[in-house]
Amino acid sequence: MLRFFSNIPIFRRLFIAFAVVAVIPSIVIVLLGNFYLSSLNTRSMAVQTSVDAQSLSSQEQGNLQRMNALVQTRFNQIFASLNGNITDPALSNAGGLVSADIAAREAEFRDGLATYQANYDLATSSNMSTIRSILNDNNPTTGPGIIADQQQALNEVTNTQWPAYESLQKQEVDLLDKLDPTV
Q1: What total of structural domains would you count in the chain?
Q2: Which of 55, 57, 111, 162 has the largest count of CB atoms under 10 Å?
Q3: Domain-embedded: residue 29
Q4: What is the pLDDT of residue 66?
Q5: Looking at residue 139, what DSSP letter applies?
Q6: pLDDT for the residue numbered 139
Q7: Interatomic CA distance for residues 63 and 104, integer angstroms
Q8: Cα–Cα distance measured from residue 119 to residue 127, given in angstroms and rounded to the nearest whole number
């Protein structure tokens, strides 16, 4: 075999050597490029899912803030109507609208919470599998803790905090409705 190479002219031997030296790194570069693009695509999908989850949670935060403002508005309406100095008939009509808006926002929040739990729960949702694998693969010591913390917080909101908030808000609205002389 060595004799075969020694019989080849030097120009061809150098050409073959340069070709081999150029082809091997090219193959490595193509393989690394494919891996990088695949990793970049996976992380892009994870970022988009995370943005969607944050968007939904921000929307539901707005619902909670609006419900709180509506309860305060309802309180102000009752106070103004009981005071007797304001005799605007639109004030009593607005009370029913505010109560209906509160009920609609409660239903919207309940649906949003169920959607969030179904689509963005790190521990169970198929939508979050990319993020779950990134958390577990990149840092196996803290990734599972983050997943467990999110699961615990989500269960606390779903099973304890939201039902308590909804019940107390309903009690307050019912008490305000009882005080409303126009109802």
Answers
A1: 1
A2: 162
A3: no
A4: 96
A5: -
A6: 85
A7: 10
A8: 6
In a domain, 133, yes or no: yes
* Domain range for 57: 50-179
- Unique residue bearing structure tokens 């005799």: 87
Please enumerate, as own/partner, the contacts of 58-62 that have beta carbons within 8 Å and a separation of 24 or more.
59/112, 60/109, 60/112, 60/113, 60/116
DSSP string, 160-182: IIHHHHHHHHHHHHHHHHHH-TT
Judged by DSSP in three states, 131 sits in: helix
pTM of the model: 0.76
Residue 164 tokens, joined: 């308590």
Measured CA to CA, the distance from residue 39 to residue 107 in angstroms comes to 39
Asked if residue 175 belongs to a domain, the reply is yes
* One-letter identity of residue 118: A
Backbone angles phi, psi at 37, to 5 degrees: -65, -40
Q: How far apart are CA 91 and CA 94, in angstroms?
A: 5
Which tokens hold the place of 154?
């989500």
CA 109 to chain centre: 14
Over residues 103-141, the pLDDT tens digits come to: 999 999 999 999 999 999 999 999 999 999 999 988 888
Q: Is the pLDDT of residue 86 over 80?
A: no
Question: Which amino acid is it at 25?
Answer: P
CA dihedral (23, 24, 27, 29) positive or negative: negative
